Amino acid sequence: MQTVIDQAALRVPAPDASTAHEPAITRADAVRGAVGPWDRFCSALGRPGASGGGSVAVITLTSGVIRSRLRSRILNEILAFDMAEFLGHLRQVNAVVVSSFAGPECTIWGYDAARHEALDAQAAVLTVQRHDGKMIPVKPLQPLLEAGDALLQAYPLLAGTVTPCALRTITAPGPCVVSAALGVGIAAHRGHDADLFMEDTRVQRRRWRPERARRRPGPAGGADREWAGEIAASIMAVGAQQGVLYEQIFAGVTSAQVPAGCFGGAVAGIPYCLLPRAAVPDDPAALLDPVTWSQARWRAQLAPAGQPA
Question: What is the pLDDT of residues 231-273, one digit of tens each?
């Protein structure tokens, strides 16, 4: 028997007191438990020598183009995918695709730890209705992308690391446009609910015009705005299905114009990893203070000039 659920009519009650209690772990516990064994490299979860059972989610969203003389479409698509991963600093990483939830034991880099100053200053570009009727702002993803770039450029994942990632990719031969979109939904009750990452990809072959590859910081322009709205609506739908209230959404789109004779790739990827020792102060939980350890101060003090490790 098939069950069909009407998303518009779906109303899931909030968890009652027996299920909505705060867990023992705090956000400070999570970041203190997310330091790996290496001094200058981010590392995989579960490594011997890690400080605990926490993790850090790093936001990446990239696209680009390769020109290849190879005749194999499969090999060209592999090269395009590898190039897009490289641009997002997911270099020489064995990505294991996992679901897109970041719970109480996971901190989001640039949002929780080393918070980017622009997150609070930027205006919403659109709003979306939550299942309880409240309108939720959707803001540009760019500050979280900048934070992820800074971390992984200064302290890359160790080569060959087997890393769990929320991941969505697309590759295609030109002429076309390859695009990826990414949304981050921040839960209202983060003590017992998970934040959500939502990824999507597209290939467009109509009305193609040659133009350089670009990464857009958020919903800019009609098509991107509409797509960001779909990403936000899908986050709200997951919240309705699972009884989770998301109070903030960040969304962004990346697109690469792919000429004939080239292959394009786009990647929305969020690795769950451990921070290197050199990237944290004496008390890693201090990174949660947006005044003492803002993203700008972190870059100046612990990743000078963003130089690779």
Answer: 999 999 999 999 999 999 999 999 888 998 899 999 999 999 9
| pTM of the full structure | 0.85
Domain boundaries, the chain: 28-306
Cα torsion 186, 187, 192, 194: sign: negative
Structure tokens at 277: 């020792």
28-306 CATH choice from 3.50.20.10, 3.30.465.10, 3.90.550.10, 3.40.50.920 = 3.50.20.10
What is the 3-state secondary structure of the chain? CCCCCCHHHCCCCCCCCCCCCCCCCCHHHHHHCCECCCCCCEECCCCCCCCCCCEEECCEEEEEEEECCCCCHHHHHHHHHHHHHHHCCCCCCEEEECCCEECCCEEEECCCECCCCHHHHCCCCEEEECCCCCEEEEEECHHHHHHHHHHHHHCCECCCCEEEEEEEEEEEECCEEEEEEEEEEEECCCCCCCEEEEEEEEEECCCCCCCCCEEECCCCCHHHHHHHHHHHHHHHHHHHHHCCCEEEEEEEEEEEEECCCEEEEEEEEEEEEEECHHHCCCCHHHHHCCCCCCHHHHHHHHCHHHCCC
